[in-house]
Structures are given as structure tokens and as C-alpha cells.
Amino acid sequence: IIILCLAAAAYTYRYMYKATPDYSLSRIITAAQSGDASAFEEMTDGTAISGQLFDAMIQDTDTAEQPSFLLQLAWRPLKTQFTANTQTYLHCRITGDIDTPSFKKTEQDMDNRLRTFGFPIPMKGWHYVSSSFSRRIDDNTAEIDITFHQDLLNKNITGTVIMTRYDKNDWHVTGITHADTFLKSLHSAYESELAAYNQPVRDKINRLVTLSRLSSQLVRSKDNKQTFLRLQYTPIIKGNPERIKDIQAAYTLQRSDDNT
After folding, report:
1. N or C: lower Cβ tally within 10 Å for the chain?
2. Which is nearest to 191 in space by CA: 109, 257, 118?
3. What is each CA distance from 233 to 2, 150, 211, 236, 257, in whole angstroms?
């Protein structure tokens, strides 16, 4: 009986588990962690994935639901550069070749580009944590949730990758499911961490000054072509106001659903 059980287990591993997307993903993760960039790149469509992330970031920065053809054309050179830099960055990270001037320049360019798109999260500091069981969409497509830890945020971020079958026992990562949702969760984690970081400063400001009789009003120009927001309030300064040399106020305006 024991021999039969061992034989059944060996058969299950060789002919069933090794044919699953889960096994292929484990090979990809092992390749990345062991420095085998060739195996990682062979089983991962980095160009498609970075392209999806770029499109999602562009969509997030544009107020229109669908960017115009001309706008997409204008972004195309930046997208090409972004995907190329991503490939270079991942290759050097996996191989450990991160002390060269070219890598440092690529890393700085990537960080600058992410900040431009409103995602000031550095490229470094990502670590694999875990993955879910695969979910079959059809015979040749599956989804798997992958969780990473981001050191700067000190939080786990989860995204869903698309696995595509290339032959009987070989699946590749070919894309991200809902790249916009992944970026929103990343942005939310950043905002949460930033708020916690700034809370001591906020508390200090609240101990110095509070606002009373706050009111707002929309004011239009005489020709009715321009609209201004008028804010009125009374600051109540606590402690020693004579020590305050200057007060600056920053306001954040958010577009509503009616485009006002």
C-alpha cells in the first residue's frame, strides 16, 4: 500500500501539478530569487506587463475616460522608454548587477517617471510574499494573485497576473488583470502611510491654529467665462502669535462628477 501511495504521489506531481500554472509560477519566482534572469524573462512577458502599467498610469492622470488618439500618439515614445527601462531594471536586479552607473541612471529615471505620474514609490524595496492558487478562466488562461511587500510603505500589495499556456506543461505570465485596480491599491497604501507620517505635524499645527466661521462660495467673472472659489474663515492663533512670521494655506480642489 505504501509503495502504491508513493507511486500515486509521484504520478500526481509529474503529470498533474507540473502541468499547472501554479508550478510554472513557482519556477518563475525561483528564477528571480536565484538570479536566473534568462529563465525569468523567458517565462514573463515584461514588455506587455510594463505596458499595461504605463497605460493605467496615463489613464489615472487623464480626466477623459479614453485618451484621444493624438494623446496616445504623444505618449508612445515615453511608453517605449518606460517598458525598456523596466526590462533593464528587472534584469539587473535579478542578476545583482546594480552597482553600475547605467543601472543607477535607469533606476533614477524610473523613480522620476513614477513621481511624474503621481506614484512616488521607488522601484527598489519589493519582495515576494505569497501567491494564491490559480483560477482557470479557460483551458489556456488562468489568474493568480501575487502579494509583494513594499519596504517604503511597510505594507503588502496584492496584484493579479494572467497566466497563458504555451504547451502542455508550460505557462507564462503574460499580463496583469485590472492594472488600474493594482495602482489604486498602491496609491491608497502610499496615501495611508503619508497621512500617518504627517500626523505629528498635523497635530502640532492644530495646537497652534484653528479655523472658525469657514464658508465657501463660487464667484463668476462679469463675462461669466471664469469661475473662482472664494473661501472665508477666521484663524484663531493659540500660544504666542507674535512668533509667527508668515502663514501659508494650501487648498486641494477635486473635480466632481458634473465636471465643475
Report:
1. N
2. 118
3. 81, 41, 6, 10, 27
Which distant-in-sequence residues (6+ apart) come within 8 Å of 80 by Cβ? Answer: none
According to DSSP H, which parts of the chain are helical?
2-15, 21-34, 37-42, 46-61, 69-95, 101-116, 179-208
CA gap 152, 123 in Å, rounded: 10
Which one is predicted more confidently, 5 or 137?
A: 137
Which residues on neighbouring strands pair with residue 136, listed in sequence order?
142
Reported residue count of the chain is 260
Run of H or E including 165 = strand 155-167
Q: What is the pLDDT of residues 126-150, one digit of tens each?
A: 999 999 999 999 999 999 999 999 9
Comparing C-alpha atoms, which of 31, 25, 17 is closest to residue 142? Answer: 25
CB 31 within 8 A of CB 39: yes
The single-letter code of the amino acid at 116 is T
C-alpha cell at 73: 500618439
pLDDT tens, residue by residue, 64-98: 455 555 455 556 788 888 899 999 999 999 999 99
The residues with which 211 forms a beta bridge, in sequence order, are: 235
